[in-house]
Design brief:
The protein is 37% helix and 15% strand. The protein is of the alpha/beta class and 307 residues long. The chain starts with 14 loop residues before the first helix and ends with a helix. The structure holds N-carbamoyl-L-aspartate.
């Protein structure tokens, strides 16, 4: 039962919930018009305290395509948080106007706090360097659609695995399925956080490996998950400048990969995937954008109890 649930991190959804959401998203993809009206009369608030293009707009497009309405802000400098209002009070207020809230905030843990004060479901659209569960639904729907399921994959996570919340959430979700292997490709300064290794990967018995060079492992991968170095989370600009171009996926590296490998990226990309890779049939990051909207349509319909 997904109605009324807060989605703060992937662990809030069971594997059955994920199947239910992906199956509904697949039905919507086949016949979107049939779902045009299911959220008629319902309102989504998008509260974005941090920049976003895809996540906010895909949430809004999702609700509009379900026949519902949206309100909110894309820039918190116009909200009462600049007057010193607490997040708790903002959420108490907004949740008395709407049926579901999608919130992005730079502070880790903020979505959990919001859920404690909300009368309606809160969806975490990214809390600092912590989690981003709807990007994970996007990634899962893409993987299920293009690779046929969630088991038996060798997945390479490349780039900023320390601050990349999409990586943390996808690791947590994929570690629940059988026979997956994770390869972490990162500079030592940007390793996956210990809490993910200790609390998620080890208990799940996931086989992991950490390497420095993408060329060394790209040929073993079924899924390559590229990420941007998260400039906004660095304490020191010099470190960012030194690390930002650690990995650039180009045509030469793609020659070393399997024909069946897919390349995912939550986007925005900066330099880490050369535009020359975009034409490669294995480049799936723009398809992934579209899957994101359908995944969010399915999630909103379920959480609001519309379907
Ligand atoms: C990601 C995010 O915000 O964490 N983008 C997104 O939501 N699609 C990845 C990123 O900003 O690098």
């Amino acid at each position: 039962m997904l109605k009324g649930l807060h989605v703060i991190e992937p662990g809030n959804l069971t594997v059955q919930d994920i199947d239910e959401i992906c199956s509904l998203a697949e039905q919507i993809i086949v016949d979107p018009v049939a779902f045009n009206d299911v959220c008629r009369g319902k309102i989504l608030a998008t509260l974005f305290f941090e920049p976003s293009t895809r996540t906010r707009l895909s949430f809004e497009a999702a609700m509009l395509r379900l026949g519902g309405s949206v309100l909110g802000f894309a820039d918190a400098s116009y909200s009462s948080s600049t007057k010193g209002e607490t997040l708790a009070d903002t959420i108490r207020t907004v949740s008395s106007y709407v049926d579901v809230i999608a919130m992005r905030n730079p502070k880790e843990g903020s979505a959990l706090v919001a859920s404690q004060y909300s009368a309606v479901p809160v969806i975490n659209a990214g809390d600092g360097g912590h989690h981003h569960p709807t990007q994970t639904l996007t990634d899962l729907l893409t993987i299920r659609s293009l690779k046929g399921g969630f088991e038996g994959h060798t997945i390479g996570f490349c780039g900023d695995l320390k601050f990349g919340r999409t990586v943390h959430s996808l690791c947590k979700a994929m570690s629940r399925y059988k026979n997956n292997k994770f390869v972490f490709i990162n500079p030592p300064e940007l390793s996956i956080p210990r809490y993910i290794t200790e609390q998620v990967l080890k208990p799940a018995g996931i086989e992991t490996r950490e390497v420095l060079r993408l060329e060394e492992v790209i040929g073993d991968l079924d899924i390559l998950y590229m990420t941007r170095v998260q400039a906004e989370r660095f304490f020191n600009e010099q470190d960012y400048i030194r690390l930002k171009d650690s990995y650039i996926l180009d045509k030469e590296k793609m020659k070393l990969a399997k024909d069946s490998m897919i390349v995912l990226h939550p986007l925005p990309r900066v330099n880490e995937i050369s535009p020359s890779v975009d034409q490669d049939p294995r480049a799936a990051y723009f398809k992934q954008v579209k899957y994101g909207m359908y995944a969010r349509m399915a999630l909103i319909a379920k959480l609001t109890g519309a379907l």
